[in-house]
Structure formats: C-alpha cells, structure tokens
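Two proteins were folded this term; both appear here.
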Amino acid sequence: MIVMPHPYGRMANRLVLSTAFIIHAEETGDTFLHLAFADYFRFFEGTRHSPFLLHRSSAPARHRKTRAFGCVNIWNTYDKRNEIYPLGGPEFLALQHETRLLFVVGWSFRSDTAIGLKHKPLVRRIFTPVARHREAVARLTDRLRTGADQVVGVHIRQTDYQSFANGRYFYPLTVYRRVMSELAAQLPGRTRFLLCSDAPLDPAAFAGLDVLPANGHFLEDNYALAACDYIVGPPSTYTAWASYYGDVPKCFIETPDASLTLDRFQAQTTI
C-alpha cells in the first residue's frame, strides 16, 4: 500500500497528486491511501463515503512485500529543485515491490503519460462531482451555451497570486480583457466568456465582451471550465485539472504581454 499522509495545497493540487498515485496503483496492482483528502471527499462520487481517499487496483497484486515500512521523502530534493519524481522509475518500483506500507512525502510525484491516458476513464469516474454540484454545473453550462457559438473559460487568479512566485502571474484585469478580445477576434460567430475568479470582479472591466460570471463555488467553477471549448488563465493546477478532466484545449498566460493564438491551445493529456 502507498500512503500519502500530508495535504498539499488546495483542491486541484490534491486532485493532481491523487491522480498520479491512483493510476500508478491501478497499473501496478497496488493500493493507494490518501490520508489528507478530508477537505474534499464529500464533493466526488468516488470518495464521498469516506474522508480517506482509498483506491484498490482492479489488477492482481504483483508485489512481494518483505519490508513492513518504508518512506520516499522528496520534500527537500525534487520538490526544492522543482523536478518531477517519476513513479514509474526503477527506484520507486523497487521500494514499492518490497514494502507493505510505503509512505510518500512530497509534491512532485508524477506518473507516466501513457498510463495516465490509459486509466483516465477511471480517474473521471472517481472524481465525478456529486449530483447537486453536477446539476449546478449543468445549469450554468446551459446558460453559457445558449446563443453562443464558442465558449471560453477564463480563470482569473487574484488573491494568492499576489505573492505566489513573487507575483509573477498576478495580472490586472486589463490583461485578461486584452487576451479575451484577441481570442474573440480569432473565433467564428459569437464568443461568450465564463469568468471564474477567487475575488469579486467589476463587470465594467469587461464592457463590450459577452461574459457570464461563474457560480463562485470552487468545485463548480472548475468543472464549468471543463465544459468550455477553450480555457485560458495563468499557470495553475486549477486550470490544468479542468483541461485534463474535460479534454479542453487550454493555454496559459505566461506573461502580461502574451498574445494567445488558437494554435497554442492544447488539452492537458496527463496530470
């Protein structure tokens, strides 16, 4: 069993990390236990019955467990260097093969792209929102698409991004408006924008554009983004998860003067 004892960030961060271990456990015939999913378990069909996220592989076990306990701690190595620790690498596979309870500490664990695609239907089933949130997203999506030819989800990160990465990705609303105007000029027909933000927005900042504010619920806003045709926003796991879950082409706004063209949009294929 692979055990994640610590929380890392908010919802999208925990979804990303949980997904990496779920698909790895599924592929290798093991079990994954996330002990720090209690903040979000009630929101998803596959986790709502327990505050602990537990996934047992449907494949037969392929491990000889000779050690009782072990730990892989990458907090001061891979995490500090901002490098990916591959779960499919020989080092981790060897420890997993021989350890009954393998604790994992760190953020940068990621699974292989190929198995990520293979087991994506499983991930989508586990992290399907519960009925009341699905229905709220469906109502918002109906309003969003009525009379529109294209819908673009815009993730406007305002609060924590004032300090995150020294404010590198904290943009004024004028940047988002310019990007939206440029995209509307490239898309055929009527383009409507879904505005998702962690802070109140002044509608006057988007005068002249066809916009619809999201519900303001962190889960519903994310899954509404996943129902759009395109997604834009600063680099974040929140935007990446919506793109991954919904197979929606996304493009990050990397700099305040960035010009986004449609050929730069790609769906997040792995997470």
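Next, the second protein.
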Amino acid sequence: MANVHVLDHPLIQHKLAILRNEKTGVKEFREMISEIAGLMCYEATRNLPTTEVEVQTPVALAKCRMLAGKKLAIVPILRAGLGMVDSIVDLIPSAKIGHIGLYRDPETHLPVEYYCKLPDDIENRQVFVVDPMLATGGSAVAAIDFLKARGCKQIIMMNIIGCPEGVQAVQDAHPDVEIYLAGMDERLNDHAYIIPGLGDAGDRIFGTR
C-alpha cells in the first residue's frame, strides 16, 4: 500500500511480541508501548530537513548536520495515545503537544469527539498523530479531519498495530498522510477489534481491564 510503512526491525518485533502477550502486566505493557513508539519515531522522522553547521570539537572544526528548525507537534488520540507520547518527547523535546479526545460508539463503532485542544500555531507544524491501534480507522480519519480543518498540511500517522480495514479507511479519506506501523494484523472481528491484536490498548495501559 502506498504511504504505508510496516517497521520490521528486530527490536520492535521483539517488544511487540511482549506487548501482545495476555500475561504481560500493566507496568511492562506501558513500558513496551513507550519503547516501541520511541523506536518508531526514528523511522517516522527520517525525512525531517537538516541544515549544515560547523561545530568546534576538542580537536578540529567539524561540518555537521542539525534539524533545520522544522516545527513539530505530537497529537495523541485520547486516551490510549498518551502511552506513546513521552518517549517521542524525549527524542524531540521542543515538540508541542495537542490532544484529541474520541471514543468509539459501542453500537455504531463510529468515533465521537469529546475533547480537542491543539497548539495555536498547529497549522505551521508537522504533526504526528499517535494511537496504539488503527482498527476501523474511524478515529484516525476524524482526528486528521480536525487537523486539516485547522490548516494542517503535513500529517503523519503512527500506530503500533493496524489492520487492512483501518489502513484502507485512512488512505481513502486522506491519501496524502503517511502511516507508520509496528505490525499489520489480519482483520477486524465482529466487534471491530483487531485480530490477533493485543486487546484494548487503553485498558491495558491504564489498568482498567
């Protein structure tokens, strides 16, 4: 699929196996979500622009490259997306953070907005939308809709696990948005859960299952 990147790095795949295990406890689950997000961030930011600078080392002058002042924002989809934020901020401490609150209606499986707070200059930033699961794609499409309505033009979606139905939904609605996944699973079941998936990511992150 165009604009879809499934990351098969051994470290990511090892941590993903721990994440999927039903015996993994809350503490370790949170740690794996955060660590995988950090590893994914390396790939998702690969094409950020850089500029050449000169740095005086203890020995000589070195020509180096640094980020070219690109403004970034991280926007987790509440609540599970919060689990992915800290490790990304550790790598990009100057990034601003917005929040989009959505829940899935249990009958229709459609997203319902209950909160949206974004940086004032969000339209001038490259935005990374983060959520552990890309299931039906409804929440992702709605979040991207909100961002584009506020003028955002550069948006990247980062999900730990996706499925063909969710990926297709995002691509159909927003073909310009790149999607980064740690794993692409088989399908959705009748309850719109990813199979084999890892259960409810929010419940497992916050210990509410």
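The first helix runs from residue 10 to 20. The radius of gyration is 18 Å. These notes refer to the second protein only.
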